[in-house]
Amino acid sequence: MRKFIMILMTALLVLTLGACGNSEGEKQTNDTTTSPSEEATVTITHELGETEVSKNPEKVVVFDFGILDTLDKLGIEVAGVAQSGVIPSYLDKYTSDDYANIGSLKEPDFDKISEIDPDVIFISERQSEVYDELSKIAPTIFLGVDTTRYMESFKENMEVIGEIFDKEDEMNNEIAAIEEKIQSVEEKAKAMDEKALVILSNDDKVSAYGPNSRFGIIHDVFGVQPVDEDIEASTHGMNISFEYIVEKDPELLYVVDRSAVVDGESSAKQVVENKLVQKTKAYKNDRIVYLDPEIWYLSGGGLVSVEKMVSEIESSIK
């Protein structure tokens, strides 16, 4: 009998300890399952500072059209767009009421942006002066393109987007496709004897852009020879006269019509193709090329806009 009681007590003790062990195990499993996981973030170093931002942010505000066309290409939704102004026609869907109007490129609507409570704000050069104010609302990242090193800067910006939105592989494929096309264009351009001049037409005035300038990608990346190596590299270009164009006598003349996108009226053809310019090889040989100002003036620096730039220059090379 005593032996039986000892066996029974031992069995009960084992069962009790087992139950306690199972209870503790269940408690640990529940803690692991229900404890909130830390939100993944990434710190981005950019021209205006360092910004910590959540991975895969949901409420995205965009001021730069190149970044907007990149997000659109990748299927990433945005919450707010600078609608108070001209939006490139290839991004026309962003003029709808489905997207909050966050002001213009030069005058952000801070109240509307605060109302959105964004997870991230993407800006470029036109908004750099209000970076600090925007940063008080949400993590703000500067992704302007450095035109003195266009492709390197472009790729760095694209890699930032890829990292934030977990699109690295897709982004690498897109960049590789653009680089392959650029290589083809560069080979054709270097085999071309024509030298080119790039000008911006603004009402009745013109300014020239050479290597390392706003439109320097035509020379620096695509390989088109400049007719003048000494053009002053400036954001607004070097002021020139029509006599200058005749003196340099380019075989190829690229024209960006600012008035067409800012004022909604194109006057470049009437302004540029005057009696003086008609003396140039470019005019005589029908080699005046009017570039899409929506891409070259309003946008640029995005997956879609850079690909369009490549295509336009490729079409101009004979």
Automatic annotation (TrEMBL):
Main location: membrane
Keyword entries, A-Z: Coiled coil, Signal, Transport
Record-linked PROSITE patterns: FE_B12_PBP, PROKAR_LIPOPROTEIN
UniProt entry tagged with the keyword Transcription regulation: no
Membrane topology classification: Lipid-anchor
Single GO biological process annotation from the record: iron coordination entity transport
Pfam families (alphabetical): Peripla_BP_2
Segments forming a coiled coil: 168-195
Family: Belongs to the bacterial solute-binding protein 8 family.
Protein name according to UniProt: Putative ABC transporter solute-binding protein YclQ
Organism from which the protein derives: Cerasibacillus quisquiliarum
